[in-house]
């Protein structure tokens, strides 16, 4: 009578097909994620650019003109009269013509708005990087667990076959077949374990502030409420900081173009002058005024600013197109990834049914060990496919939630 392969030969327990979990699927703690994003260098740099924009706005609101003091001292010698100390001094400052100060303040407000939205978008991109590395780790770790379970199962199978050979109930060829299958499984397990360790190293290197467990969490079943993905897709556009930043930049360029048009008439400078001549015999004070007259250069600068404003408007429209594409792609990706996982799950169930029959046939002596090992390998592949499809579905769900700002970016 042929020895049946042990029940443990199943690659993973059927518990893997349990009811989906409704909580946040296998994600790190939100407070830890927030701290990790705050410490991300690109996010820190973006926050410093916000501070720089605010300082620039204060400088624009103040005035582009400084007080300028000029003066001279001379010692004059006049025949038959003697030597005299003489001096004069001017204190002047440019004055912004009407409308320019308002536009300067407006430009500063728009640039701060753009910097703040770019900082939020940088945080958004950092969150996507974190999610990418996180699911790389969980996916690789899930595959490693499947491969390690296959090794344990085949070790049990080899021991059983070797015992049968000792009892004369099986040919040595069967032991060779089981050992060859075990060797191949060990190679796959070593490779997948190395890939899981590499993925964890990359995650830890990019986000050292994120406390990682020693073992990656299991990949839960994807679970979304009906209509939830469509709601997320709509929020991708309405909550986009990329669009807001581009539109703020466009408004800043538009205000700058208006400011340069006003600069075709230069700002005058006014001030006071005091002087002393002939050793103080003559003194006086008065007002001074200067007015630059611009030429073709100022007209060319106004044309340049107008063209840059038009380009910024087009770029803002392109940013909206890009985000709309992201929203549609996120939705399509999540939908087909979830569908693919459901098909992989169905395929796994069918393969498990085939394996059960193959085991029974082997027990009855109707199925050779080679055929059973092939069925075990196909079941292993089905489990690997299901784990990969489950991870990709969770990755797609996480991405659309981040892009909609419903995950990690709600504040």
UniProtKB/TrEMBL annotation:
Signal peptide extent: 1-23
Stretches of the chain forming a coiled coil according to its record: 331-358
Xref: Pfam families: OEP
The keyword NAD belongs to this UniProt entry's keyword annotation: no
Glycosyltransferase listed as a keyword: no
Gene3D superfamilies noted in UniProt: Outer membrane efflux proteins (OEP)
Entry keywords, A to Z: Coiled coil, Signal
PANTHER family: BLR4935 PROTEIN, OUTER MEMBRANE CATION EFFLUX PROTEIN
Similarity comment text for this entry: Belongs to the outer membrane factor (OMF) (TC 1.B.17) family.
This protein's name: TolC family protein
Organismal lineage: Bacteria, Pseudomonadati, Pseudomonadota, Alphaproteobacteria, Sphingomonadales
